[in-house]
Design a protein that fits this description.
Strands 1-4-5-11-10-6 form a 6-stranded antiparallel β-sheet. A hairpin with a 6-residue loop joins strand 10 and strand 11. It is built from 9 helices and 11 strands. The chain is elongated, with a radius of gyration of 21 Å. The chain is α+β, with helices and mostly antiparallel strands. Helix 3 packs antiparallel against helix 4.
């Protein structure tokens, strides 16, 4: 503490602001607790913006209506896969992780899912999105050895948890389509992509399954995130197929999609 006091007397505030940018969230809080002077330095918006973008490993791709310190706390209070950006307001959802030669053009969402196991969503809120993976146990099983019977890929706009509509519960998930695969499935997989970057070199890495998906006898869930997409895969043992549901949450004022959920349950 004595060392810090002497050191601060000889250095300008902007130097400490730059130093603070390279500390993780826990270290920033500890530094802020040392004195009122450091609290003021650490609370600078540029510090938390830098920390948030760095730890989420995404570029600075949008403006935000919230303080970056609040976004940081919101982004790191969950089981997070990673983060990516949606810049085009259009997203492509799929469950087979095979790069399509063309996008589906069926007249309804359900027809797209039935024909291709994929669909296109419009009016997506642009900016940074957080991706989470959950494994949910069946309601009749309470065994610690159970790996779960449902896999859920959740992605949400980075601001979602801070918005009034979400906090009051007025924004809810809506089912937009579902279908069954009534035969043995080797794996449960899913992906969400910014359509503008579906053919980009960075997104192409997600379709190279050998580079990140486990061997056939590896039952641990795997995930991969790029700047503009996220994908998950879990290898499955003997089964009778999958029941797949697609949900979205929209904001009340603009109707923009602020969260997307793909769930896959064993039949």
């Amino acid at each position: 503490m004595i060392y810090v006091s002497v050191f601060t007397s000889r250095h300008e505030e902007d130097i400490w602001t730059e130093i603070a940018k390279y500390l993780d969230g826990k270290s920033l809080v500890m530094l802020a607790a040392t004195s009122k002077w450091f609290l003021r330095v650490v609370m600078d918006e540029s510090v938390w913006k830098f920390a948030c973008l760095r730890d989420l490993q995404v570029p600075d791709c949008s403006e935000t209506a919230f303080k970056w310190i609040n976004l940081y706390a919101s982004a790191f209070d969950w089981m997070r896969i990673g983060a990516f950006c949606i810049n085009s307001s259009d997203a492509f959802l799929m469950e087979n992780l095979i790069c399509p030669s063309k996008l589906p053009k069926e007249d309804t969402m359900q027809n797209m899912l039935n024909s291709y196991g994929s669909c296109v969503l419009h009016n997506i809120k642009t900016g940074i999105w957080i991706a989470d993976l959950q494994l949910v146990r069946c309601p009749v099983c309470d065994l610690n050895t159970c790996d779960g019977t449902m896999q859920v890929l959740d992605v949400r706009h980075v601001e979602l948890f801070l918005t009034e509509g979400y906090q009051t519960g007025s924004w809810e998930y809506k089912l937009i389509g579902s279908h069954d695969i009534r035969k043995h499935s080797d794996s449960a997989s899913g992906g969400i992509f910014d359509i503008k970057y579906l053919k980009s070199p960075s997104t192409a890495e997600l379709f190279n399954l050998k580079s990140w998906v486990g061997s056939p006898n590896d039952w641990q869930p795997k995930a991969m995130v790029t700047y503009h997409a996220v994908a998950i895969n879990t290898n499955l043992q003997e089964n009778e197929g999958l029941h797949i549901k697609y949900h979205v949450m929209t904001s009340g004022d603009t109707g923009e999609i602020v969260s997307i959920r793909i769930s896959q349950q064993l039949l």
